[in-house]
Design brief:
By secondary structure, the protein is α/β, with parallel strands linked by helices. It is 27% helix and 26% strand. The chain has 7 helices and 9 strands; from the N terminus they run βαβαβαβαβββαβααβ.
């Protein structure tokens, strides 16, 4: 079974080496919509794949990191990167270009890492990320699947290579959350008192 959670954020970037002259030469922004699709072969005690309320925690914090931020590819011109850091308190450095395609991979990867590091408390089953869809505009989106994440041709993704500015980190519920994630810390979902015994 699949469930879908929609997230929204505003972001600015340059997509180097693309065909469109406007996109590769000028900073521009989009109103993004991110669809996170989770799958499981069984339901929890609440008869859900994964409680939507749980997606308002770590995953929301990470996805919200991109809101009103500028994203840049770490291989871009050093002067451009320095200007992004100097003139924007909210920035995210990526190991890949900030295209819609790569955003879908980044969000898939980040959600996957958080779920793998979370100890569930309500009988959840084999919950995992099925797909991520990133709408860059009303008419265009990119969608990624598991086979796209470890695809070396598309670029290697690792937690160490995705860097969030100090301002972004300070706005997380737990400012140390990302460091904990990188170190293999196990996050725990809230415990649940069952009203009806199954």
């Amino acid at each position: 079974m699949l469930i879908r959670k929609l997230f929204k954020f505003e972001n600015a970037h340059i997509v180097r080496n693309c065909t469109s002259d406007r996109c590769k030469r000028s900073i521009h922004g989009h109103s993004y919509k991110v669809e996170l699709l989770l799958k499981a072969s069984k339901l929890d005690h609440g008869q859900m794949v994964y409680d939507f309320g749980l997606l308002k925690g770590l995953i929301k914090d990470i996805f919200d990191s991109f809101d009103h931020a500028i994203c840049f590819w770490q291989h871009d011109d050093p002067e451009y990167i320095q200007a992004c850091k100097k003139f924007s308190a909210r920035w995210v450095a990526l190991p890949v270009s900030p295209s819609a395609e790569q955003f879908s991979r980044i969000f898939f990867f980040l959600a996957q890492q958080i779920l793998a590091s979370t100890e569930t408390q309500n009988g959840e089953g084999d919950v995992e990320v099925y797909s991520v869809i990133v709408h860059e505009t009303d008419t265009g989106y990119a969608q990624s699947f598991l086979e796209d994440i470890d695809n070396k041709q598309m670029g290697i993704l690792s937690l160490d290579e995705i860097v969030f500015s100090e301002q972004v980190q300070s706005e997380w519920t737990d400012p140390l959350m990302y460091e904990k994630l990188k170190q293999g810390f196990k996050f725990q979902n809230p415990s649940v008192d069952l009203q009806v015994k199954i």
